[in-house]
Structure formats: C-alpha cells, structure tokens
Amino acid sequence: MTDIEPFDIPDAPGDDVVAIPEDEHVTQANAAKLKAVYDKCVQKGKDRAAKMDAVARAAGARTEAHIKTLADRRALFEKFYGSAMQDWPKSATGRVMRTTWTAATKDSFEYLATPIPDEGAILLWNAEREDGEKLSNSDILFHQYRLAASDEATDKDVTDYVLPLMNYMWTENAGAGEAIELYQYMIQLNPARDNTVAVGPRVSGSPDYYALLGATNGSAPTYLVLDHCMDLGIAGISQIEVGPLTDMTYRFTRS
Hints:
It contains six helices and eight strands. With 255 residues, it is an alpha+beta fold. The chain has an eight-stranded mixed β-sheet. The longest helix has 31 residues, at 28-58.
C-alpha cells in the first residue's frame, strides 16, 4: 500500500477567479518567493509522474495479494465509513455522494463526490481527511466510484470487480495548500495579462503540468493511479486542464 498523502479541496469561495489585485505591486522578494513555490511544485510533480510511470510499468494482471488488499480495504470501508446520496444542484447530475468516517469529530471531515461511471468520471467537490482514518483518500474515491457503478446483484465479490474505465477527475476550485501562491505565479505567466491563470490544457512534460501535478490537489488523481491503476484501467495523467475558476480536470491515460 502506498503512503497516504492527504489532500484538501475547500468549498468554492464563490464566482471570483483567483487573482492578484491589479493595484498590488509584486516586489522582487515576493516574486522570488512565488517562483520558489512554483519550482518546488514542478519538482514534486516530476517525482509523482515518475512514481506513476514506475507503477504502471510494473502493473500486470491482478495478483492474489492485490485482490486480498482490495478485500481488506473494502471491509474497512464498509465497517468504518457511511455513504449516502444527496441533492447537489451544482453537479451536472444534481446529486452528490457524501462519505464520512464514523469516528469523525466534525461534520466538515467529509468526502463529497459525484461519480459518473457512464462517463468514466468523478467530480470532486470536497475532501477533508481527519487524522486516524482507516483509509486513504484514493480508497474512498475508489469505493465511491464502485458504489455508483454497482448494485447488490453485481457487487458481491471483490474478485469480480469490472468497473468502467476511468477517463478523468474534475476538482472544484482547487485552491488548497500552496496553490494560491502557485496561481499567483502562474498569473504572471499569462500572456493575456488579464490577472488570471490562463485557461486551457497543460500537457504532460510541460513545466505547468508538473507544477499543477505537484500541488496539494494533484495528490488525489496521482494516488488513484498509484493505488488503483489495475482496477480502473489507468496508467498516468496525460494532461491537466485549468478551468475559468481554477477548477481542474485531470485526464487519465489508459493502462
């Protein structure tokens, strides 16, 4: 099992694009600080990409050990977590799956996602993990996807998992951790000079791709690949698309 690396995507602050006030003077010291954050994320993104590549190269048919791990994690999920569908107007489906740890100390410790198996997609609205939880974020997202794709008649045996291949993960307003400083630096790179992060795809191998992959919120899609590449038919992340409100779409490559 890979190391757990928590991530946190807070609720959207509204319709405001992450931006630096136009009258703010970016000092040389601040510019250097932002560049250092960007460079750090780039290096971390390269490390994550290398890990995904190594895992994908080593992956083959699911072994007995892998199937046992799946069964053990599913047992923990069913024993220590509860999931329920709720209305969610912001979602294209109008619904969201809310999963919580039974020992959570606050309501804010929750996983809000809209799995859409027919599209091979999962829309992630919020994920806040509490210390001491039994499973990693990637396991929670995997089982949310499994629940959405299955029913009692087809979901009895872990050895029979045949889930729809995952195509992409979308995250709302991905502004956790060092992301604000990262975006502030990326704003300076936008040739449009419109005080926003440039919208559009960042392809694998580009500096911006590695920076976004290495940011806190790049953990979720990365660990889906590392922990569940054989179960979801994914081998890596081909590109990261930046949306108008710094929402992110992570496109998976096929295994």
